[in-house]
C-alpha cells in the first residue's frame, strides 16, 4: 500500500518517480485488478536514464494511503521505454492526486472543491466574506476551491458551511474581520438559506422535481417514490453500522442494482452516476438535503465525519416481506466490510463503475455483473 505523507505535490512527484522499478519502504504499493493498459504517449525526459523519450502512459490499479484513508483506484504513470522507470510527470501525477484527494474527501465527508464553490455562491459570498465567516484566510479558501486538502479543523468548518444555522451562529458570535454592513448582509443571506432549508423539512423530497417520476431504464424500470426512498433509508440507518454519507451512497447502489439483477426492477427509482470516488445517486446532494431534515433523519458527528441516523422507526407497510429481506441482506453485506473505505474500494471493482465515463449515468444493465452475492430471499 502506498503512503502519501508529503507536504506538496512536487515533493510527492520527486519521491515517487522511481517506484515502478525500485519500491521503497516509504512508497510501497499494492497493485491489483486488470493489467496496465496503453492510454497515451507523453514526450518527456526520464529522471533516471536522462533520455528524452516518448513514454507510454499506463494504468495501474493500486491502493494508496491518503492521511489514513485507503484509496484503491486506477492511476496513470508514464513509463520510460528504455529503462522501465516510472517517470514523475507533473500532468499525470496531478490527475492521480485529484483522484486520491476526491476519494479522501468523500470518505471524510469533506465538501469537494465544486461543492465549496457552490456553497459560497449559494450564500452570495465573495471569497473574502466566506473566509471571514469561517474564520480562515482568503488564501485557504482559494486553495480548497482549487483542490487542496484542508486541515482537520478547516475540514470541520467546511462541513459546517453546509448548514445555514451553523453559519448564522458564527456570524452572531464572531466574524470580527467583517465590517458591520458586511456582517448584516451576510446574516440576511444565511437566514434566507436557513428558511429554505426549513422548507425542505416541510415538503421533503417533493422539491426534487429534477428526479424522474416515471419508470425508465435509467431508473431501473421503477418510478421514483419519495416516501419509499425515505423509509428505506430510515431502515438502513438503523441496521447499517456507521452509515456515513459515502457508505449510504454505496449501500443504495447495491440495494437498487441487486434488486434489478434479481427482480428485473430497481428498489428506489434512483439514477446513479459515476463519480471519481465511486457510484453515487445522481444529484445526491439534493437527495441528502431533502432526506436529512432533522426530524426523520439527522446527522451525528462521528470521528472525522458525519453519520446518518434515524430519528424514528421505519414504516415498512409499503414493502413486501421479500423487499424487507432485501433491505436486511444489503445491510448485512455492508456490515461485512471493516470500514467505509473498504466498501468504497469494493465498489470500484464493479464493471458499472469501471466502464462508465466520469459524470455519466450508470446503465442498470451492468447489474447482471454485480459482485455482491445474491442472498436467499423468501
UniProtKB/TrEMBL annotation:
Q: Which GO terms describe its molecular function?
A: DNA binding
Q: What is this protein called?
A: DUF4065 domain-containing protein
User: What Pfam families does the annotation carry?
Assistant: MqsA_antitoxin, SocA_Panacea
List residues of the Antitoxin SocA-like Panacea domain. Answer: 248-353
SUPFAM superfamilies under this entry?
lambda repressor-like DNA-binding domains
User: Sorted alphabetically, which InterPro entries does this protein's record hold?
Assistant: Cro/C1-type_HTH, Lambda_DNA-bd_dom_sf, MqsA, MqsA/HigA-2, SocA_Panacea
